[in-house]
Amino acid sequence: MRQDTRVKLEIAGVGHSYGDLRTLSSLTLAGEANEVIGLVGPSGCGKSTLLELICGLQEPIEGKIAVEGNSASEERLGRCALMPQRDLLLPWYSAIDNAALALRNQGIGRAEARAEAATLFDRFGLAGFEAARPAELSGGMRQRVAFLRTLIAGKPVLALDEPFASLDAITRAEMQEWLAAALRADPRTAVLVTHDVEEALYLCDRVAVMSGRPGRVVAELSAPHPRAEDRDGAVTDPGFVSAREQALRTLHQTLRGS
């Protein structure tokens, strides 16, 4: 059978456990090329675990995960870039050296890696901060460096684990708008874990709602399209408001066990 080259990510009947604790059960989801998928659901339902499984950092106990048709863990790891909740910037490295770290890990020399990262600093709103240490950067700027490090790795699939959870509301809204623009400029297949339904609908093409533990996908919602590029215009659109209410109702039903 000829493989559908549009499908970058395939998750079929996946189960996972930590010892006797069942975390995921019969979870199925697929992502096409350059599609951004949001994962929302109750705390502890296995969203972050699912990202680690996608990236080959863990293995499911049942089912299949394939990235670009490759299911072996080392093949998935080589095709995915994970951005965890914390930025994990090295405090003794400058911003540009932190951003270039993904290239250095691929065996590229320091000067070449720095030069490649430097070409993106202006587009990421970081121009002039190349030599700054993480402690000298705002929370939003640290997240930009972390995302630049994730993107510059050149992997076809991005796994983003609540990248803005630690930011204040104003900075978070600004970063959502910035990330939406970054993904438009450099499209990738991405899976975004978030507790914020509005964030998921604004940044993603499709939102998968997960049940409580053991997590499984209980609903998939399409985000409003087209959306205004500015966040305020997008989230106040009547179609967006309706989609948000539908997503919240689905989540509440999930929490009540319906």
Attribute tags:
258 residues; alpha/beta; Rossmann fold; six-stranded mixed β-sheet; 10 helices
First and last CA, distance: 38 Å
Report on the biggest sheet.
6 strands, mixed
Mean of all residue-level pLDDT scores: 90
Helix content: 25-40%
Beta content: 15-25%
Computed CA radius of gyration, to the nearest angstrom: 18 Å
Q: Architecture of the domain at 7-87 and 157-255, CATH level 2?
A: 3-Layer(aba) Sandwich
What is the name of the CATH class of the domain at 7-87 and 157-255? Answer: Alpha Beta
CATH homology superfamily of the domain at 7-87 and 157-255: P-loop containing nucleotide triphosphate hydrolases
Structural class: alpha/beta
SSE string, helices as H and strands as E: EEEHEHEHHHHEHEHEEHH
CATH topology of the domain at 7-87 and 157-255: Rossmann fold
Uncertain spans: none
Number of strand segments: 9
Task: Summarize the entry for a quick read.
With 258 residues, this protein is of the alpha/beta class. The protein is built from 10 helices and 9 strands.
Task: Outline the structure in words.
This protein has 10 helices and 9 strands. The chain has a domain at 7-87 and 157-255: P-loop containing nucleotide triphosphate hydrolases (Rossmann fold, 3-Layer(aba) Sandwich), CATH 3.40.50.300. α6 (139-152) runs parallel beside α7. A 6-stranded mixed β-sheet has the order 5-6-7-3-8-9, with helices on both faces. Strands 2-1-4 form a 3-stranded antiparallel β-sheet, with helices on one face. The termini are far apart. The mean pLDDT is 90. By secondary structure, the protein is α/β, with parallel strands linked by helices.
